[in-house]
Write a structure and sequence with these properties.
Layout: H1 2-21, E1 31-32, E2 37-39, E3 45-47, H2 48-51, E4 55-61, H3 69-85, E5 90-96, H4 104-113, E6 121-124, H5 129-140, E7 159-163, E8 168-174, H6 181-192
Parallel strand pairs: 4-5, 5-6
Antiparallel strand pairs: 1-8, 2-3, 4-7, 7-8
Helix pairs in contact: 3-6
Length: 196
């Protein structure tokens, strides 16, 4: 009996220790988001400095996209719901890669039509293409390109990025297919509890 008790105690200690180990985010990135300033759908300025102190998710999209952007945006809306259900306070920022055509009203309708809630989601524009190209390449390590001749479809990455309170990208995830919703929620929870 004494031996069984020792084994049970050992197993319990191992479970507790392994649970403690899950309070960190594995394989963290360390990419600093450069300073930026853009306009949301209400014409309000959103900048890197006013996101400081918040955990946020970011991605790139455009409203006339006929491939990856509609499902990615629906995926982000689903993630937004899961974060709210888990009571994890995260801001969401989408940068348009087609700022000329993506007017505030068009951006707003695009998010709402896919189930998104703009209370904590900013779909940004109000800059030129070279501005967002520089931001995507230099901060998010993701190439974007204007449409090739004869098409209106931009090329851009399909990742969701998790950014900490200091403006550092700590993780990126597939935002288009097989989105790891629970993992993203868990990682955001770690960051918001300042244990990551």
């Amino acid at each position: 009996m004494n031996k069984l008790l020792k084994i049970a105690c050992f197993v319990l200690v191992m479970i507790v220790l392994s649970a403690c180990g899950e309070k960190t985010i594995p394989d963290k990135l360390d990419w600093q988001v450069q300073d930026f300033e853009a306009a949301d759908v209400d014409g309000e300025t959103v900048s890197s400095s006013n996101l400081e102190g918040n955990v946020w998710l970011a991605n790139f999209a455009f409203t006339s996209c006929n491939t990856v952007c509609p499902p990615m945006t629906a995926n982000m809306a689903k993630l937004q719901d899961k974060l709210k259900e888990a009571d994890v306070p995260v801001q969401i920022v989408t940068f348009t890669v087609d700022p000329k055509r993506d007017t505030p009203d068009v951006r707003k309708e695009f998010i709402e039509a896919r189930g998104g809630d703009l209370s904590n989601w900013s779909f940004l524009g109000g800059y030129d293409f070279s501005y967002v190209e520089n931001l995507s390449v230099n901060s998010f390590k993701s190439a974007i390109a204007p449409p090739p001749e004869g098409t209106d479809q931009f090329t851009h990455g399909t990742s969701f990025y998790l950014i900490n309170q200091e403006g550092t990208i700590v993780k990126k995830y597939n935002g288009y297919q097989n989105v790891p919703y629970d993992k993203i929620v868990d990682h955001a929870k770690i960051l918001t509890s300042k244990e990551g």
